[in-house]
Amino acid sequence: DGETITRLKELGILNKKGREHFYGCATFPLYDCNDNPVGMYSRRVYAFEKDNIPSHLYLPGPRKGVFNRHGVKSGSEIHLTESILDALSLINAGIRNTIPCYGVGGLTDDILHLLMQEKPERIYVCFDGDEAGYTGAKKVRERLARAGLTAHVVKLPEMYDLNIFFNPQVTGKGFTDSKRAYEELYMGAAGLTPPVKPGPQEEYIPRKDGFALIRDKRRYEVRAISKNGRNLKATVKGISINISGQRTEDRGRKNKTRFHVDTVDFYSARSRAYLTRGLADLFGTDEKTIGRDMEKMIESAENYLPREQAGPETRVIAEKDKQEALAFLKNPDLLTEIITDLETVGYTGEEMNKLLCYIAAISRKTDDPLSVMIQSRSAAGKSCLQDAVLSLIPDEDFIKYTRLTDQALFYQGGSLAHKILAIEELDGMNGAMYSIRTIQSSKKITIAYTGKDPVSGKMKTEENTVEGPLMVFITTTEAEIDGETASRFLFISIDESREMTEKILAKQRHSHTMEGFLGKLKGADIIRKHKNAGRLLKKPLKVVNPYAELLTFTSKSLRARRDHTKYLNLIQAIAYLFQYQRKIHTVDYGGKTIEYINVTLTDIARANELAAEILGRSLDELSPPSRKLLMLIKEMCVSEARGQGKEREKEKEKRFTRRDIREYSGWSDFQVKTHIKQLEELEYIYSTVGRKGKEYVYELVYTGG
């Protein structure tokens, strides 16, 4: 209405013609000490500038109010600029303790009164780098001195103002460099020595799928690194955490995380430039700084190796834990302690089986590791034994899979040398059995496949090699294992007797008592001890058997050629386990010094005790469960014959069905069907009656003990 327009004209917001006085300007309010708006300053925008119209506009009358009065802190340093836009350049650079004058002669009474009230330690007067600016700054300094305030004149380069000084397109300097240069100017004006700026704080953090790089407050996460002769590709995520609370009025606000993600080819200038612009915008810094960060990322990406290829991980063992592990390795009764420890961690009975599995696991560090297959019925405890032994092995030394596809091992992506490959069930890896057998025998596997040449784009043959040797640890319920596979493993069978079942049930009940609870806590200490002991075993360390030529082994079957090697490797693994109780010898060959230990007669005696039971099973044409079923059938036939008073004749003439076997043995129908098939094929029994839909009747042919 007319009254409002009249009032706006009186204030100077509208001119006499009713037009806006600040039309085409960026406008800034000015406040008094009570935060009331008492003045306005406007800077005409470039597009509206004309020769006959001033660029700097104020309300009519004396200049009142202060811009950014809250930037003045008691006892702090104050930067006094020539204009509001100059002050905004410093505020944007993070120097918030800045207030402007209104031109070279624009130190108003309001500004002077505020400075006298707050009494800052030092005032830096920074006007434009021209004659008018230098002269005006000196006059301001003199006026402040008369008011009892300490001021210093900051001289900018000739013909520079603060807006130009912080403009990288004009200076060619990055934002950080400009801020550092200004700091040197104003501290030099006060006769102070600028603090020595440390180099960028840097931290490299390896990850399973890449790495993280922290440079000052800039964090980068680099993943999915793919490199060949022509490209170096990765996904880069820049993360900026803006912490509120730098200003008083912002305190209490939540932190905000911003990020920029892009896939980049580090060897492509265009790709790097696009990423650099995005990261510079994210971090609010210049592209030169991001460029230096990019150089560090490229260097780290070129040197990056996945953990599988990076070689063994060095772990620092606490001195107390190291001494505990060494005491274990130096124990003369080491094998007994192993059996006792496995009992404590939860696996009862099966002393020979536990010992063999543990020694085979240790053999992974030798040049000729043993491999173990646990063959038994379902629910017998195969997986429990496997898990108990693996729990004592350092995590970095074994890989466990539920299933392994046909070609998976060829693309493992690193070396499997001196590791354990554990498969929960043979059924989960039948397709990969060929590659397993090959790496066991040849100690490496190589696959040739067709790929595209990154330079020419033509198809070419490429190779992928996975290095061994390794120890293979498998469980199975299968009765028949093909000869090629069986000859490469030591076979063990779980005790399926009623007495062992009673022991297991008692152990399970005991685990729910207080004593059992405390035993679990002790088990954690035992696991740590064994893992540290495994890390302390020296590799490489050769084992020499001075008694090898005096040993004998059965030569009745062709399979003895491989079983004899297993026997020798078993002796070697036992000696290797006792290395801290052996004298280490050296021999020089080919300019290298090779360390080795000698096998002792005690090692051979220990190996013979295990081999008598384990290798005896390997030479048996029947699987352990099938052999067990045969003995149960014979026992059933003998028992029936005795009841009729004619043992030998009736035993052989006794006919029986699968139902008779189930009722006598307690085995399930599936288990009986599985293992009786092998007995029939190998002619230990034969069927007299039986076809689909009819009852199967068998007779016992086997007459052995």
Describe the SSE topology.
Blueprint: H1 2-11, E1 25-31, E2 37-44, E3 56-58, E4 77-81, H2 84-92, E5 98-100, H3 109-118, E6 122-126, H4 131-146, E7 151-153, H5 162-165, H6 168-171, H7 175-189, E8 202-207, E9 210-215, E10 218-227, E11 232-242, E12 256-265, H8 269-283, H9 287-303, H10 319-329, H11 334-344, H12 351-362, E13 372-375, H13 382-390, E14 398-401, E15 419-423, H14 433-442, E16 444-452, E17 459-467, E18 470-476, H15 483-486, E19 490-492, H16 498-510, H17 514-536, E20 542-544, H18 560-577, E21 585-589, E22 592-598, H19 601-619, H20 624-644, H21 647-653, E23 655-657, H22 658-665, H23 669-681, E24 685-689, E25 697-700
Parallel strand pairs: 4-5, 4-6, 6-7, 13-18, 13-19, 14-15, 15-18, 20-22
Antiparallel strand pairs: 1-2, 2-3, 8-9, 9-10, 10-11, 11-12, 16-17, 21-22, 23-25, 24-25
Helix pairs in contact: 8-9, 10-17, 11-12, 12-13, 18-19, 20-21, 20-23
Name given to the CATH architecture of the largest domain: 3-Layer(aba) Sandwich
Domain count, please report it. 5
Average the pLDDT over all residues and give the rounded result. Answer: 83
Number of E strands: 25
Kindly, what is the distance between the CA atoms of the first and last residues, rounded to a whole number of angstroms?
A: 122 Å
Q: What's the story with the biggest beta sheet?
A: 5 strands, antiparallel
Residues in β-strands, percent: 15-25%
Structural class: alpha/beta
What global shape is seen? Answer: elongated
CATH superfamily of the largest domain: P-loop containing nucleotide triphosphate hydrolases
CATH level 3 topology of the largest domain: Rossmann fold
Poorly predicted runs: 243-255
The total count of helices amounts to 23
Rounded to the nearest angstrom, the radius of gyration is 42 Å
